[in-house]
Amino acid sequence: MRKVKYYYDTETLSYRKIERKKGKVFGLTLLFILGTLVASILLLIVYLNIPGIETPKEKAYKRELDQMTFQYEMMNREMEEITSVVKELEERDNKIYRVYFEADPISEEQRKSGFGGVNRYKDLEGYNNSEIIIKTKKRLDQLKKRIVVQSKSLDEIVEYALNKEELLASIPAIQPVQNDDLKRTASGYGMRMHPIYKIRKMHTGMDFSAPEGTPIFATGNARVKKVKKSRRGYGYHVVLDHGFNYETLYAHMSKISVFRGQKVKRGEIIGYVGDTGSSTAPHLHYEVIKNGRHVNPVYFYYNDLSAEDYEAMINNSALENQSLD
């Protein structure tokens, strides 16, 4: 209960009760509230501007941010370990699996391709932690790409393994003309003097000098891709598709014994040595094409030559003599 206060009235010589005016009471109350509000705002400003002092909410956000940064660092370490394992698998793939099945190795550029040009990570820029986020995303994308390429390579190797017997039967592996019928290996693969133009020119195959009418054999199981009879260039010639990215060409024939689309076996007669087209003497011009590129045929006679014969053929084919076509 509020105390009642009195004052002495000298005019009436008596005590009177002190009564507060309502307007004055309201004004004092309003002044007190405003004072308290101003003081609170000032204290808050001072509190927020003092270095080292964080609000509970800020502390919680900082803890979450530190935890996120830690997790990103851990993810990058794990990706380093996975990348190391993938790299080892890639090396095995190139140096063992693909070599064994005679498949071309996959280059590092192919395994990492597809990340140039447009900035793929523009949406992740502009944040306090953009650097670590972009770094992690890049490594993840590269890792995914390498795994996809490696997965496709292993699928290819599995297919080669399943078709190993067919592969071995299809790869060109014998001479197209028997040794008994050969006069000589006239010219090998490489830069040679052209017999007609008298200039050094790339000779993309090997010339086997033999009497006209000497049988020519398919060097591996194949399908006849092309049969052409011309008075120029390769003259009467045949192209065989062996599958597995291998093709062989037999040129300057006197007679062709196969037709387009026919399947032939290794050792089967496909025609006879001749002197047709741009030729200067009876011979067979023989080419091996792998993945659309000419390769030296001398490396594909391992099925029917002794070590001595093979060495002699390599030495003869390396001589820079004049070709016959």
From TrEMBL:
Q: Does the keyword Transmembrane apply?
A: yes
Which CDD domains did the record assign? M23_peptidase
Any one Gene Ontology MF annotation carried by this entry is: metalloendopeptidase activity
Q: Which UniProt keywords apply?
A: Membrane, Transmembrane, Transmembrane helix
One Pfam family this chain carries?
Answer: Peptidase_M23
Q: Where is the signal peptide?
A: none
The record places domain M23ase beta-sheet core at 201-297
- TM ranges are 25-48
Descriptive protein name: M23 family peptidase
